[in-house]
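Provenance and format

Records in this collection were gathered into a single text stream. Each protein contributes a sequence line and a token line. The two records reproduced below are adjacent in the stream.
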Amino acid sequence: MPSKKFEFLEHTADIKFRTSGKNLNEVFENVVLAVAYYLTGGVKIGNKEQRKIFLEKDNLESLMYSFIDEIIYLLDSSAFLVSKAEIQISGNKLIGILYGDSAQKYEISQIKAATYAEMHIKENLKGWEAQVVLDV
């Protein structure tokens, strides 16, 4: 698992992880790394394709939920497997570029959906952190 950008936590049935970063941009970028790591079991994903993303929601938790939902949607609808992201967050708006590759080249695990269960995004002494649970 790469550095301390994310860590998987104990959960009975689903996948739970925590990401951290100096700012919210890094936290969201590290969510992509955690999701990609789970999907491929740590296999490196190419960055041959890219997609632009723009989201606006009422709060950070809704923004995170929609962000993960978009990653799952791109995988399910167009076999686009996201490997990394460049994200800019301003208030409750997210603008970014998602990099990735065709999912058909990889053996991947399934993610049904993001959940609001146990989700939090908060500032701490080192920057920011988010906790996410994925329904698998």
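Adjacent record:
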Amino acid sequence: MERYNNRYEKLGKDVKSLGWGDKKQQIYRFEQVLSNVDLINKNILDIGCGFSDFLSYIQEKNIMFSKYTGWDINKKFLNENKILENHFVTFENQDISNLQESDLVELKKANHQVLLMLGLLNFRLNEGEMNYEYSFDLIRNAFAITSEMLVVDFLSSKIIDQYPKENFVFYHSPSKVLDFALEITPNVILKHNYVPIPQKEFMLFLYK
């Protein structure tokens, strides 16, 4: 949270405040989402929505979604988004990592058909915390409340020579993530074939 707030104070409402490289890279990442997702007439839940750039992207492409809900735990980001709220777009201060069983039951009733978690699992946790355990807990929670599918992206442990390894981020093993995903659903796509932006990433699509 502190890292995001410091960037926000310095850069304002900018994709770099969220840790993205630049707008072009962000759009390319969003394009990978649409390669396996149909958003027409869908209820979308964007977990870790930041400045709701994905919403802006699909609106610019004139994709006729049914409803968009953005979750974030950063109140400054949510305040930036409030002006966008209407009958079809809402934002909530909600933490996917802190859901109780009763929360899951209620959230299932909301019929969130497409869930997104983009850039949410990239930071290395503090010493003593386990990144895989944290990531898999969040994925379990998110998949539990979607009625159709979940999309989540990762920095890949298959690091390219052109970009040096960074200590403050976490690189997930694609094979380890895939093995986990197949434990919760047999319907999975792992996309590891898109251009590094600028690091090598991969995207996981989990279907009910």
